[in-house]
Amino acid sequence: MNQPTDRQGGEGAAAVTHALSIDVEDYRQILSARFRGEPGPLAPEFERNMEAVLDLLDAAGVKATFFVIGTVARERPDLVRRWADLGHEIASHGPDHTPVWAVGRERLLEHLVGAKRALQDAAGRAVAGYRAPVFSIRWDTLWALEVVRDAGFTYDSSIVPVRLRRYGVAGFDPRPRVYGFPSGAEIVEIPISTARVCGLRVPVAGGGYFRLFSYRRIRRAVAEVEREGRPFVVYAHPDEFGPERFRVADMATGCRDKVLAGMIALKSNLGRRKVPETLRRLLAEFRFSTLGRLAERVAAEGPKGLLPGLTGAESRRKEAR
Question: Fewer beta carbons within 10 angstroms: which end of the chain, N or C?
Answer without folding.
Answer: C
